[in-house]
Design goal:
Number of strands: 2
Largest sheet: 2 strands, antiparallel
Oligomer: single chain
Radius of gyration: 20 Å
Strand content: 5-15%
Structural class: mainly alpha
Shape: globular
Helix content: 55-70%
Distance between the termini: 34 Å
Number of helices: 7
Length: 168
């Protein structure tokens, strides 16, 4: 019988000692672990710009698809209303996004990226691209494409309104 100290000190997996062997083949755990690593790296490169990865994501979507409402932005990003309001408030305070009356619906606002926002977004994209390339240095272009395809399929499956038979 091994002690708790021995169990903690022993490498969990021969392939990666940082992954617990009991979880190293669990898709959800691996996705969560990869998400946390990506999020931490992204926040690290965004911090000098005064941005978070949430700021970046919102800026990128508004620049690409805008002008759009906060509600549409939240739906596109898969983020709840409270979070979107807080992120957009931050972006507006920083002068990176402007809320303008929606010409189609005068009761609503349309979000637009400002000139300062476009400059910040360009800088953030450059920094993030460089960091992502370093993180994926050991992954071929074909594997990167496959990974993106697999992740999109997982998201689609998770968000689909499909009845799944659960094991008894």
């Amino acid at each position: 019988m091994t002690s708790d100290a021995e169990q903690v000190a022993a490498p969990a997996s021969p392939s990666d000692p940082n992954l617990p062997s009991v979880l190293e083949n669990r898709v959800g755990y691996l996705i969560a672990r990869a998400h946390h690593a990506c999020h931490a790296l992204a926040d690290e490169v965004m911090r000098p710009l005064g941005l978070s990865i949430k700021h970046y994501g919102c800026l990128a979507v508004i620049a690409d698809e805008g002008p759009l409402s906060q509600q549409t932005l939240g739906a596109r990003m898969g983020v709840d209303r409270t979070t979107i309001v807080a992120v957009v408030d931050d972006l507006e305070t920083k002068g990176l996004v402007a809320r303008r009356r929606n010409p189609v619906d005068r009761r609503a606002y349309a979000l637009e990226v400002t000139a300062s926002g476009r400059r910040a977004l360009a800088s953030a994209q450059e920094r993030l691209h460089g960091r992502e390339n370093r993180m994926l240095a050991g992954v071929s272009e074909a594997q990167r494409d496959q990974l993106r395809d697999l992740l999109r399929a997982l998201i689609a499956g998770a968000e689909a309104d499909v009845d799944v038979d659960e094991p008894a």
